[in-house]
Write the structure tokens for this entry.
Amino acid sequence: MTINTVTIVGAGYMGGGIAQVLAIAGFDVAIADVSVENANASLERLKKEAKAFEDQGLFPAGSAELVAKNISAGKTIEEAVADVDFVEEAVFERVDVKRDVLSTISKHARPDAIIGTNTSTIPVKELESAVTNPERFLTVHFSNPAPFIPGVELVAGEATTQESIDAVKELLARSGNQGAQVADTPGMVLNRLQYVLLKEATTIVEEGVATAEDVDTIVRTTFGFRLGFFGPFAIADQAGLDVYANCFVTFEDAYGDRLATPQILKDSVAADRKGVKNGKGLLGDYDQATAEELIAYRNKAYAKMSQLLAELGPAPRATPRNN
Ligand SMILES: NC(=O)c1ccc[n+]([C@@H]2O[C@H](COP(=O)([O-])OP(=O)(O)OC[C@H]3O[C@@H](n4cnc5c(N)ncnc54)[C@H](O)[C@@H]3O)[C@@H](O)[C@H]2O)c1
């Protein structure tokens, strides 16, 4: 099935952003919320915001017109989902609210309409029994702010068909998003990693190792600097797997099992996989030409990132707290 018409249920922060992205990509998008008035007010906000983003050069020329032309409101949830190819649920992150809304959506949508949920953390298995014909149901998790962050996590339930997943992947390709499918576990990949970082960062502050401001400075000026271009596996390949394995010894001695050397790293080093430097990494093999191109790309990416940050200047800062 090819998706051309979409309804977003829950026209708040995320739902509104998703509606904008899809409208700019040419999809016909309706938004619905708890009331028609709410949805109408969201549409006005989205139009104003799109105009401001276009004026600031953040949206391509013509985007505000596409948002005004392609997004509609004015209908109840039941009416708005009645004849569209894809419905994305983006209401509050509460299992009971989502189940209720998903049940309404699936009762009033076409039986073949694909239904996605934008949940950040709830497994598909906790929601799918609320959906009739669950073979067309999956998580389609956009990131915040949706108009600017391209990645989308996809999670299939036990019943979800490949056809439904492929249709959503095609929609994402058309809207310039990048979908990655992961298994059905709480928090999926994005938030599991992001929350571990915050948890460790807060522990560091609680232990008095560094202040919150200094932790943030270190993250954004060192490894965070790399993350727009490379994930942890690519970064380990570039740093050297033997180097990482040696560093893990220190961590394991200090923090025990929690930071013990990962088996995959031990096995790789034992098999003489040292990363880009010997052409054998965690992600696969690098021939000489690819290794050289990768390092050149990396250098260019980080130099451009420095230039961009200099151009933007520092981000506005919070006033130091006193409690
Ligand atoms: N904010 C983020 O950073 C972020 C990022 C990724 C995913 N998400 C997920 O997206 C979803 C929405 O989050 P948000 O930040 O947009 O919240 P939000 O509060 O801005 O929007 C939620 C919208 O849902 C509507 N709503 C609530 N109950 C409803 C119901 N019964 N029927 C119809 N509409 C209803 C509200 O009126 C509101 O407009 C959540 O599942 C959240 O976890 C949020």
